[in-house]
Structures are given as C-alpha cells and as structure tokens.
Amino acid sequence: MLDATRSGTATAAPPAAATELAVPASRLPRAGFAGRCARALAHPYARLSLLLVLLAGAAASVLVFQPQRLLTHGWPPQLGGAAAAAVFGVAYGLCTVAFVPRPLLNLAAGALFGSQLGLATSLAGTVLGAGVAFGLGRVLGQDALRPLLRGRWLKAADGQLSRHGFRSMLAARLFPGVPFWAANYCAAVSRMGWWPFLLATAVGSIPNTAAYAVAGARASAPTSPAFLIAMAGIAVPALLGAVVAWRKRHHLRGR
C-alpha cells in the first residue's frame, strides 16, 4: 500500500507541476503596440527624436493657423472677458512652444485686452509656455543631450545654470538677446530645478512684456506719452544688450 501510494503520488506530481508552470505563463502580458512603444522610448535618443518631431509639428501648425492674424483680424466675437483672456493665455503658451516670437504675442495681448489685462495674460502664457517647454526638454531631451556637454563653454554654461538657477535664468529673461525657446531648453538640459526656473521666468519677463503690452494697447495713439515710454522700454534694453554682446565678443576675440 505504501509503495502504491508513493507510486501514485509520484505519477500524479508531474501534471500538478506542469499546471503550476502553465498558470503564470498564461498570465504574462502580451507584447503589443504599447509595449513596443514603451521599450522604444526607453532609449534616450528615441525620446530626443520624439521631441524633435513634436517641435517640428508645432512649428508647422503655426504656419498653417497663422496666429499673427490676431493683430489684423482681432479676437473672435463670441469670446469676451475672462474667458477670452484665459483662452488667449493658453494659446499664448502653446505658441511660444511652437517658436512664435513673444513680442508679437505681447503686442496682440495689449491690443486685444488693454495694458493691465494684456500684461497679466501675457505673463500667464509666458510661464505656461516656459513650463511646457521645460518639461518636454527635461523628459525627452535631457538624457540624450547631457553626455554631449563636453566643450569648455558648454560645461561652464551648464554649471552656471545648475548651481545658480534662479539668478542665471533671471538674467536670461532680462537680457533681450537670449531667445525665449533657447533659454527654456538649455535650462531643461541642465540640472536646474522647476521652481527657480518658473519664478525667474515670471519675474524676469515683467519689464519687457509690460513694454510690449502697453505699446500694443496704445498703438492707435503713437504720439501719446505711454506709447513713447513703452517704445523706449523696448529699444533701450535691446540697445544695451547689443552693446554688452558686442563687448563680450570683442573680449573673447582678444584672448
């Protein structure tokens, strides 16, 4: 009896073991399109390629929709008040990601909403657009681009942005010669934190944004003191920026 029992147990064991092995195998997820995309995006250069595709698509959409027509055609009549300002702020942020120049958007904001609301809407759109660009660059581009920071100047710029994030970004926003999109993606590749980047963007963008918003609001009266002061607020920082850039270039050539 013992031998028979042991023999029966021995012969019954393999099917049980086979069943135990078959159950987990049946529960394994099948490799589908989502799984292949996840594995592809795990590579840094695949994410960088996706970023370039997104930016190219955004730039192409700007060419199709032509947001600069806001300056000539105005805002859709069915939108007004706070709803129009909110929609414009979101559109402003998306347009900056698509490389639309901020001066054009600031002029449109002033012309559509006046000086004060135009300034508030432009600043909100500026911070939104900077945050979107920073997030895209940080998630999709940082891992692929950081190993390329090998030159002396690139390492110095990366160290400055990483160690002194708020101060560096504040200077970049105040300096009119630094493109908005370039500052966003350079900061994203560095190790700058989110809050210093967004706070410096908001504070540093106030003077230039205010000047363009007032100019857009008073464009119908080009001889008014407010318009002339706004134009001076645009021209003087640009001239100072050009002089500083020329002196730095001359200094580097002299080395």
TrEMBL record:
The keyword Chloroplast does not apply. It is found in: Cell membrane. It holds the Pfam family VTT_dom. It comes from the Bacteria. Keywords: Cell membrane, Membrane, Transmembrane, Transmembrane helix. Residues 100-217 form the VTT domain. The keyword Cell inner membrane does not apply. The chain crosses the membrane at residues 48-67, 79-99, 119-140, 194-214, 226-246. Its main location: membrane. Belongs to the TVP38/TMEM64 family. This is TVP38/TMEM64 family membrane protein.
